[in-house]
Write a structure and sequence with these properties.
Blueprint lengths: L16 E14 L2 E14 L3 E5 L6 H9 L6 E6 L2 E2 L5 H11 E4 L11 H12 L4 H14 L15 H12 L6 E5 L7 H16 L3 E6 L2 H4 L4 E6 L2 E2 L2 H6 L5 H10 L1 E5 L4 E3 L8 E6 L2 E6 L5 E7 L4 E2 L1 H6 L6 E4 L5 E6 L1 H10 L1 H22 L4
Parallel strand pairs: 3-8, 3-9, 6-7, 7-8
Antiparallel strand pairs: 1-2, 1-4, 4-5, 9-10, 11-18, 12-17, 13-16, 13-18, 14-15, 14-17
Helix pairs in contact: 3-4, 3-5, 4-5, 11-12
């Protein structure tokens, strides 16, 4: 790989949240009736994040991406990218905005077959007039060097393998130095080795400050991104549920997302008292909690701290015993959490053997830790 000098001026007004979907719905109409592909989707993506969008075929992930790129418009709701209300743009406005702010990589490459590789990469610059004419050839060549394709610059796409074409497609997506890269199943038609190389390219771009949003069905690749957004039946699974309970099926994750109740605790507030009959399962979404166990001398010792995407409360639910620990919000910050009641917790245990095994192991480890502390000599 060779370095390339990227344009210094950002195309989008700086802000922490770069992409935001607010209560977005998409309904398709056909002779067979209406089909809701997206159902009240709320999603925020921050500048510089590498986000994987995953879901089964037909779950709505490509429709979600089309909302961000403006390829399609929501039936209801708002789509904002930076300070641009994408859902309000007409086709002419959309084309210019998209060319300057988004680099899109498709599953089937979509290189123009009658243009050389070099001209395919240069084309977005010609369309948007983003760089002086005299600089475009040099920039296109540097982008091809970056993806190890410079030696093929004058070939037609048909002379390249699928992996090579995808590298060229990535170079083309970077032509106008967009702040956002959108990739829709970019490794879907590639072998595992080539897919890994393409993924590494996206990771490098994210490390350099690009915001990368990648749709993928490859769970292995999805686990390697900074953040995963799971979509099921047109709805986005709560990301803290997905992080805390990754062994659940998307359907069960979605059910938990729908049924979990939000609770808030003040800084230092006790959430679970030792030896109580608390029967809730907690998933932390913001802040941090401290878990304390009682020593033989009656003093408590902090044995763990848990942050967003971690859970507690499983012991009393799984064993039907009283609680063995005290859990409280740390002294200097409040805690927000989701709670599952006993019925929902038991349903997960029954319907997901993987979840049951994970909980069984966690309970065994935490009970052993409690015995160790309670039996410790002064």
């Amino acid at each position: 790989m060779y370095p390339i000098q990227l344009a210094s001026q950002p195309k989008i007004k700086p802000c922490e949240t770069l992409i935001e979907l607010h209560k977005v719905e998409k309904t398709f109409q056909s002779t067979a009736g209406n089909f809701r592909a997206l159902k009240t989707v709320d999603l925020k993506i921050n500048r510089g994040e590498f986000v994987g969008i995953i879901g089964r075929s037909g779950s709505g992930k490509s429709t979600l991406i089309n909302m961000i790129t403006g390829i399609d418009h929501p039936s209801v709701g708002e789509v904002l990218v930076g300070d641009t209300q994408v859902h309000t743009l007409n086709e002419n406005q959309m084309a210019g905005w998209r060319g300057r702010n988004l680099g899109i990589v498709f599953q089937f490459f979509q290189l123009l077959p009658n243009l050389s590789i070099l001209d395919n990469v240069r084309l977005p610059m010609d369309f948007c007039n983003t760089f002086p004419s005299r600089e475009r050839h040099t920039r296109a060549m540097k982008l091809l060097e970056m993806v190890d394709m410079a030696e093929h610059a004058h070939k037609l796409p048909s002379a390249l393998s699928g992996g090579q074409q995808q590298r060229v497609a990535i170079a083309r997506a970077l032509a106008n130095d967009p702040p956002i890269i959108i990739a829709d199943e970019p490794t879907g038609n590639l072998d595992s080795k080539t897919a890994d190389a393409v993924f590494s390219l996206f990771k490098k771009l994210a490390d350099e400050g690009k915001t990368v949003v990648m749709v993928t069905h490859d769970s292995g690749l999805a686990r390697r991104v900074e953040r995963t957004v799971i979509i099921a039946d047109g709805e986005v699974v709560n990301e803290y549920v997905a992080k805390a309970l990754p062994v659940l099926s998307p359907t069960l994750m979605l059910e938990v997302s729908r049924k979990a109740k939000k609770v808030n605790f003040a800084a230092g507030e006790t959430i679970i008292h030792k030896n109580s009959e608390d029967k809730l399962f907690y998933i932390v979404t913001e802040g941090m909690v401290e878990v304390s166990l009682r020593r033989p001398n009656g003093l408590d010792v902090i044995v763990d701290r848990m942050g967003p995407g971690q859970y507690f409360g499983e012991i009393s639910l799984f064993t039907n015993q009283r609680t063995i620990a005290t859990v409280r919000a740390i002294p200097d910050a409040p805690v927000h959490a989701l709670t599952l009641d006993r019925d929902l917790f038991q349903k997960l245990i029954i319907e997901s053997p993987e979840f049951k095994t994970v909980i069984q192991n966690v309970v065994s480890e935490r009970l052993a830790e409690n015995r160790s502390i309670s039996e410790a000599k002064e």
